[in-house]
């Protein structure tokens, strides 16, 4: 094109495209899902803007918030068009080629090891999946603030942009035109596209139409010389009425032939799943909804979900999911990112998936959405962010989320230590639920611990969800409630020890006496546990006691006073022998058995393990 301006793809993007083009990945279908998802995002954006500025939608067809798919079998072109926000020339340059997103290199790296292209959408580079099926792609786009442009590329390291002088005006929005590779011919079949939209785009909230062929019966006269229409119809009616004189009728009777016409066929049902009655939504539908919402197209089901509506001052409906797996960077970005994965809708209109006040940070692993009728529609995102209802929504979401996780534990037969209950409630889905909480704990346990640290209001609820190993847990995970049920009579405190690993802690001299006396001690081996125990002071009226710290009490020891008295001289000498800035005190210990002496940290100071953690952080 004479007016084309040429650009090079950013290096990482170019590598990504090479990988996609040369991929042997068999599931090429995913490109359609990515394009429809982009179209839907673009419509969400224009609809959001239209809340404060009605004019922005334009008039007539331009205002229709829909997605259209069209085929050209002869030219082997598949096109997907939306009436979304569109892209300016600047947008086309940036979004489709020159600015690599943070996910680009992560995805390239991932492709080199595991190679599951299915996850492309999660990395924010879904658009490029078009090159799984096309060798030449045109993106025609019209944004309200700019002219209509064509972006085009054969994925040869470069793309071109030209002001559009060839295509019909789009009004507003984007049309992606895929010139399909020879081996991708199946995407020119209507049946294939219908199947894909059904499978992948069930939860898109805008209508998706296919320009579909339809066989219709057309009546044509049987003989050339048949008389006028009037005569024909009168003859026909007489046949119906009398049914006589058939031979004569046959000759002049109209014939029906098949003819192909085209019309827009609606492919999806746009009733939002969260507006339906939870009783009428199947498990499979929730599972599929999760995959589409989270862009997680693994074949694992979500671990748990909760679908509810809140009434009263603040009304909203919500669906929350616990994903089957934690994303790799969940904790890496923990302190820099407030972004929850919950999508916010106001009266069915998508507002944002970057709201930071919906749930506290530690629940950022949840996927789901909230649709509120109480929040105002015609204000900016910033104003919404300040809205007083959000506090109520947040509070309820936390409560529901914790209930959902609690239920996951309650329903897991592996979790129960109550044998009677187990027998009574044994049901067929026991096996399906077995081990699910352990799975949850392994993926998201750290989030629960961070919650205990950060959320004082829900600390006790969160502590109930805590799992750990102990001297009596036999290599399995156990809970505080289970610990308490095993406490010895007369035992007041919950004992724990912190350190690097269970193996190391098991040999600790701090455990000698406790083990001998059959007290249970919790092992805390995650670095975050040290912080955790600075916040978790008690549980169900029981105090926590670090067994490597001062203050360990093991029931009554009648000899203690006597011993203290008789070794007074020794302890006194010892204390003076060790300079006083090295130790606070020297005492007769009640915690040792074989080991002659041990260094204990003071009640309010850092434990030895904390010293170790702090050192490794500052060095
Ligand atoms: P993501 O959708 O995760 O942002 P993609 O690679 O699918 O990543 O798309 C890249 C960007 O290109 C989008 O963020 C968007 O800005 C732009 N884009 C893609 N398709 C469209 C479209 N149909 N309408 C408007 N913008 C689009
Ligand atoms: Mg996308």
Automatic annotation (TrEMBL):
The keyword rRNA-binding does not apply. This is Endoplasmin homolog. Belongs to the heat shock protein 90 family. Residues 27-184 form the Histidine kinase/HSP90-like ATPase domain. One of its GO terms (cellular component) is endoplasmic reticulum lumen. Residues 221-256, 409-431 are annotated as: Disordered. It comes from Morus notabilis. One of its GO terms (molecular function) is ATP-dependent protein folding chaperone. Keywords: ATP-binding, Calcium, Chaperone, Endoplasmic reticulum, Glycoprotein, Nucleotide-binding, Signal. The keyword Chaperone applies. Residues 221-233, 240-249 have a biased composition (Acidic residues). It is found in: Endoplasmic reticulum lumen. Its main location: endoplasmic reticulum.
């Amino acid at each position: 094109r004479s007016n084309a301006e040429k650009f090079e793809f950013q290096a990482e993007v170019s590598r990504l495209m090479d990988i996609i083009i040369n991929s042997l990945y068999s599931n090429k279908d995913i490109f359609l899902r990515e394009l429809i998802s982009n179209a839907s995002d673009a419509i969400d954006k224009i609809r959001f803007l239209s809340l404060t500025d009605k004019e922005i939608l334009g008039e007539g067809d331009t205002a229709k918030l829909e997605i259209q798919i069209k085929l050209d079998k002869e030219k082997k072109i598949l096109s997907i068009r939306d009436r979304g926000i569109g892209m300016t020339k600047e947008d086309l340059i940036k979004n489709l080629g020159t600015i690599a997103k943070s996910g680009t290199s992560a995805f390239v790296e991932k492709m080199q090891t595991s190679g599951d292209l299915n996850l492309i959408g999660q990395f924010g580079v879904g658009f490029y999946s078009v090159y799984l099926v096309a060798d030449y792609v045109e993106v025609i786009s019209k944004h309200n603030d700019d002219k209509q442009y064509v972006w085009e590329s054969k994925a040869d390291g470069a793309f071109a942009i030209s002001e559009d002088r060839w295509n019909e005006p789009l009004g507003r929005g984007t049309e992606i035109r895929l010139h399909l590779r020879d081996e991708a011919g199946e995407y020119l079949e209507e049946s294939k596209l219908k199947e894909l939209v059904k499978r992948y785009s069930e939860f898109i909230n805008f209508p998706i139409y296919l320009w579909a062929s339809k066989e219709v019966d057309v009546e044509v006269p049987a003989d050339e010389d048949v008389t006028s229409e009037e005569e024909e119809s009168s003859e026909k009616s007489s046949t119906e009425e009398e049914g006589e004189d058939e031979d004569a009728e046959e000759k002049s009777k109209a014939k029906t032939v098949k003819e192909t016409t085209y019309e827009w066929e609606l492919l999806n049902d746009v009733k939002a799943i969260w507006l339906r009655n939870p009783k009428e939504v199947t498990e499979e539908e929730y599972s599929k909804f999760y995959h589409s919402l989270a862009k997680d197209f693994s074949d694992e089901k979500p671990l748990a979900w909760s679908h509810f509506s809140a009434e009263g001052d603040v009304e909203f409906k919500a669906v929350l999911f616990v994903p089957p797996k934690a994303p790799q960077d969940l904790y890496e970005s923990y302190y820099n990112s407030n972004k929850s994965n919950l999508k916010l809708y106001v009266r069915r209109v998508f507002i944002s998936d970057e709201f930071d006040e919906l749930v506290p940070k530690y629940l950022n692993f949840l996927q789901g959405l909230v649709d509120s009728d109480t929040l105002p529609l015609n204000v900016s995102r910033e104003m919404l962010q300040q809205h007083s209802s959000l506090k109520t929504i947040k509070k309820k979401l936390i409560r529901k989320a914790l209930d959902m996780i609690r239920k996951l534990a309650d329903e897991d037969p592996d979790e129960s230590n109550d044998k009677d209950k187990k027998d009574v409630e044994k049901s067929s889905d026991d096996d399906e639920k077995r081990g699910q909480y352990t799975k949850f704990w392994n993926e998201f346990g750290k989030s629960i611990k961070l919650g205990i640290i950060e959320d004082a209001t829900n600390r006790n609820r969160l502590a109930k969800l805590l799992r750990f190993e102990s001297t009596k847990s036999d290599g399995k995970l156990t809970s505080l409630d289970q610990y308490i049920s095993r406490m010895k009579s007369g035992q007041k405190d919950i004992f724990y020890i912190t350190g690097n690993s269970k193996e190391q802690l098991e040999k600790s001299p701090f455990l000698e006496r406790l083990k001998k006396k059959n007290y249970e001690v919790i092992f805390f081996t995650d670095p975050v546990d040290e912080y955790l125990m600075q916040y978790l002071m008690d549980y169900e009226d029981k105090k926590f006691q670090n067994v490597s710290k001062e203050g360990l009490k093991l029931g009554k020891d009648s000899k203690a006073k006597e011993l203290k008295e008789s070794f007074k001289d020794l302890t006194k000498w010892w204390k003076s022998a060790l300079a006083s800035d090295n130790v606070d005190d020297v005492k007769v210990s009640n915690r040792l058995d074989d080991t002659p002496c041990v260094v204990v940290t003071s009640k309010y100071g850092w434990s030895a393990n904390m010293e170790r953690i702090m050192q490794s952080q500052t060095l």
